[in-house]
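Q: Could you predict the 3D structure of Alkaline phosphatase family protein?
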Amino acid sequence: MAPLIVINVVGLTPRLLAHMPNVAKAGAVAALRPVLPAVTCSMQATLLTGSMPRDHGIVGNGWYFRDLGEVLLWRQHNALIQGDQLWTAAPGLRTANVCWWYAMGAPTDLLVTPRPVYHADGRKSPDCYTRPPSLHDDLEATLGPFPLFTYWGPNAGIASSEWIIAAARRILARERPDLLLVYVPHLDYDLQRYGPAGPEAIAAARAVDAALAPLLAEDAEVVVLSEYGITPASRPVHINRALRTAGLLEVYTQAGMEYLDPWTSRAFAVADHQVAHVYVRDPADLDRTRAVIAELAGVDEVLDQAGKAKYGLDHERAGELVAVAEPDAWFTYYYWLSDDRAPDFARLVDIHRKPGYDPAELFMDPSDPFVKLRAAAALARKKLGFRYTMQVVPLDPAPVRGSHGRLPDLPDDGPVIIGPFDHDSYEATEVKGLLAGLARR
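A: Sure. Here are the predicted structure tokens for Alkaline phosphatase family protein:
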């Protein structure tokens, strides 16, 4: 039986497919209708479980863990997904996961997922976690170390995608799994940085199409899909600053820097691209909080319990309110009112300490004439084994030109699924059944 390879090309839309001849030949093209929020973790959980966020519990790329009193993004434990997943939908199959999210602890036979090394002296090195552990040594010996997810420079991210694709081919050749899932993040970078319609987006699409050609040519059944489409966006919405100005959000101060205080705030938002979960401690503050958010330019909807239920987002992990941005807007996580009070991690690529997503990490600060020199000095310190900080991220989010998260207004701006399918469109909740059927052939 030929193995089934499921390739998740983040950001793939019908518009970009016109520049990707290798991917276009993978089969019939159908529209894929995403869930809200249309972000990586929520969509992948839906694709794997066939259920809505209200059932699988992945309400975003992160949320406020009320029992811990912490905002945590990009967790990796598979047990955070509630409900049965694709891995067990076709019993007896040998399964492999290359970089789909919530991989650690999943019942897959083979696994590769990003897992940096946090050294005791504070340094951080890119690396991956594998199962079995021997797979790590094999991949490093044949492909080199797991590469840093490159944020800056032309065609940022292609090195990571090329390594992931090569790892998938290595596993396919050596282990011959029956089901292989592969996550290819390349389009995420330049489409958020420059927008989805410019020459940079077309170049990125062509680059990932060329990189995928060898994997698409393997002797296997292939399905290509995406989680969301990235659309033009140029209006940042500072939702937490509005809540702070209204007296609802509180901060605490250390070393002259301000930090979000979720324990005492009456309301605060976890910003996630074009969706923000707003956590309101006291129900008496709901109406006021909703009014503050609804008045913000760039806010399309503010969902209460009934609104969340309408979109299948009424899970206990969701905020008491959920804000959805207008098509050309997106939410920042910023809560400080003066940049000289911003925490030091705001100027870094630091996806775990920021209480929300920060696409400004895709840029080097254009207002700093010495930013590249300082970055080079930091890299030199790293190579010499010293501790370093790469403080190059701007505090002005204006350069961002693409975002996602709200449901697409046009099919051409939404995700797709390509393979041996009969219909013109599918719900994201149908994909698990489609893939399980193909895997059992």
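Q: Anything worth pointing out?
A: The domain at 4-231+405-439 is CATH 3.40.720.10 (Alkaline Phosphatase, subunit A).
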